[in-house]
Amino acid sequence: PEVLLEDLDHVGPATAQKLMESGFTTVEAIAVSSPAELATAADIGESTAAKIIMAARQSADIGGFETGDMVMERRKLVGKLSTGCIEFNEMMGGGIDTQAITELYGEFGSGKTQVAHQLAVNVQLPPEQGGLDGSVIIIDTENTFRPERIKQMVDGLSEKYGVEYDHEEFLKNIRVARAFNSNHQILLVDSALELANELKNSEKPVRLLIVDSLTAHFRAEYIGRGTLADRQQKLNKHLHGLQRFGDLNNASVIVTNQVMSKPDAFFGDPTKPIGGHIVGHTATFRLYLRKSKGDKRIVRLVDSPNLPDGEAIISVTTPGLRD
Ligand code: ADP
Ligand code: MG
Questions:
Q1: Ligand 1 test: best mutation among 107, 167, 316, most atoms within 8 Å of CB?
Q2: pLDDT tens for each residue of 248-262
Q3: HEC profile for the chain?
């Protein structure tokens, strides 16, 4: 049953009205806001705002403990987003999980951004075709999002399924924001939450969040050992924000992480992604991509809470990912 804003303690009709007008249309949106933000939006004191947020969190079961049966209920909703590749899907137990962070790591050119583009297309398909009937938010830190590439992949789908898909429609359901530095990148997750709340009851709720690249800004900004702990801490907090996004929206979260092609004094083993174990312990699934012959790429599932490690071969072609 949906909880109305006015049902929350400390929220009267006037406050509810102001909150709605400022875009806080759901209890979840309030639960994840800050007191300062809410105080400004509803023209109330920060201490009242804090109480309202607490009430919203209790009502929405956010930020507190969940009992095992509640986790079970939530887990029942886990969706599978198809990669469009049979082997790859099978390795992932059917597809990319929702309510989880999946990390794509590999060298430059290994296909991380290509996989991300393909998932941004596939998520919009109906479940019969492996999609989640959803839209996607992309946080683009390296300016590598290409609408032209989306068009090619949509045309590829039309060919594959013998249906005339309209690439304009697909492009409309992709919302892209450039992140200019790591702080901005973290803030964009809050904006993504707001946007997802706005779209929650729309035809295409947000079911996929992509951060491409997760680590580039962090690597550029935190060079040297002195600030390494600082960087890891910030990255860790960022990842928890992403996980929360996935849980609240029953969405898949894809992050990319480039590994060095040459051994590096700071980061050691070239096959170890930067962000090291901090990304490793927070990302639910880790996929290591590497180049093979021609357009072939090897995707290795490195560790997963419930699936065996494995490898799948995919092709990155002009109409999209193929077996
Ligand atoms: P990264 O892991 O650095 O994100 P990308 O996902 O950008 O790597 O992969 C780039 C590679 O994808 C290119 O080297 C090329 O092999 C392939 N690729 C990119 N665009 C196309 C296209 N339009 N048609 C076929 N292959 C493409
Ligand atoms: Mg890339």
A1: 316
A2: 899 999 999 988 655
A3: CCCCHHHCCCCCHHHHHHHHHCCCCCHHHHHCCCHHHHHHHHCCCHHHHHHHHHHHHHHHCCCCCCCHHHHHHHHHCCCEECCCCHHHHHHCCCCEECCEEEEEEECCCCCHHHHHHHHHHHCCCCHHHCCCCCEEEEEECCCCCCHHHHHHHHHHHHHHHCCCCCHHHHHHCEEEEECCCHHHHHHHHHHHHHHHHHHCCCCCCEEEEEEECCCHHHHHHCCCHHHHHHHHHHHHHHHHHHHHHHHHHCCEEEEEEECCCCCECCCECCCCCCCHHHHHHHCCEEEEEEECCCCEEEEEEEECCCCCCEEEEEEEECCEEEC
Centre of ligand 1 to C-alpha 124, Å, is 22
| Average pLDDT taken over every residue of the chain | 88
Distance 248 CA to ligand 2 centre (A): 27
Selected from 3.40.50.300, 3.20.20.30, 3.30.70.330, 3.40.50.970, the CATH number assigned to the domain covering 76-322 reads: 3.40.50.300
> For residue 265, is pLDDT > 50?
no
The answer to whether the CB of 316 is under 6 A from ligand 1 is yes
Q: Is the CB–ligand 1 distance for residue 98 below 6 Å?
A: no
Nearest CA to ligand 1 atom 5: 111
Instruction: Tell me the average pLDDT across 265-283.
Output: 55
Evaluate: CB of 152 within 6 angstroms of ligand 1: yes
Q: Where are the domains of the chain?
A: 5-60, 76-322
Topology (CATH level 3) of domain 5-60: DNA polymerase; domain 1 (1.10.150)
